[in-house]
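Our preliminary data section would be incomplete without showing what the modeling component actually yields. Below, a chain of 124 amino acids is followed by its predicted structure, encoded as tokens that our downstream tools consume directly.
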Amino acid sequence: MAGAAGMLLLSGGAMAAGNNNEALNDLYGRNMDGCLNNLNMLKTINQTDADRQSAALNGVISGATHYLLMRGQLTQDMRSVMDNIWQSRLTGQCQSIHNALFEGLLNLADGGTEMAGAAGRRQP
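Predicted structure:
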């Protein structure tokens, strides 16, 4: 899982570079493309929420990247625990992005022009 040092996320887009995706995908347990695509779709609905979600994802990826750089020096027990923790954090953030996108789409279906959040979703 080496090679994550060059992980680059562009603000508002979260586009990862080259082979670094593989290490992150391995840690995440699936391909990050779906998460990044949801984030890009969210930008078309609500830029402010997309920026907030992007910043949160960048923070998680930054921490995961730091972990990946030292992962090879850890014992198997530590790697097992830490892999699960980082997988959980990545999964949680991607789920948050998914939820924000879904809420935005529901708001649009209700006739809204931008996402209002779960409590403020327009009622038909």
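Residues 1-19, 115-124 have pLDDT under 50 and may be disordered. DSSP finds four helices and no strands in the chain. Preliminary results of this kind motivate Aim 1 of the renewal.
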